[in-house]
Amino acid sequence: MVRTVYYASASLDGFDAAGHNPAGFNSADYLAAGFDPFSPHPTEAAGTEVPSAAGAVVMGAGTYARLLRQVQEHGPAAWDCPQAPVWVYTHHEFPGINGADVMFVRGPVSEFAADIADSANDADVWLRGTILAAQYLREGLLDELHLTLHPLLLGSGQALLPAAANQQVRLLRSEPSADGSMRLHYSFLPGA
Fold it and tell me: Is the pTM of this model over 0.70?
């Protein structure tokens, strides 16, 4: 069964910490420093747990724009998605990325969710981006949250799941990290 999993990084006060991690690195810096975010055991400095293998990736325009900038500034190694179909929900026109299988779609998340799951070839769908994750959750299309909770307070920023639906979750696993962060895996309970 294909699962849609949101991999996220948050501060203790609930803000998206993907762009502000304790090590002070951005994704391109991780790669330049020899960190492999797709390792089955991501390094503590990488900040956010990411899937070792995803059958498909889905993201919004903001996440794609950030990744596109990283690739333009740091070269192809800054593209931190697996060799899998990448689906981008957007109303903007963007160029593709050489060597990446990127599809741009417009419309409600429910309209493309089945096609995205089919493209994953029985592997997980990696969901990226706070706003898109909230939309998937409201539509009942989000199966799990893999959260790295960092011991820092940002005070402001993008909420982890902005304006999400009232939803019950079940803790599947928790694991402390040497840097003081906590890795938490949750499943979303149906019908809540």
Answer: yes
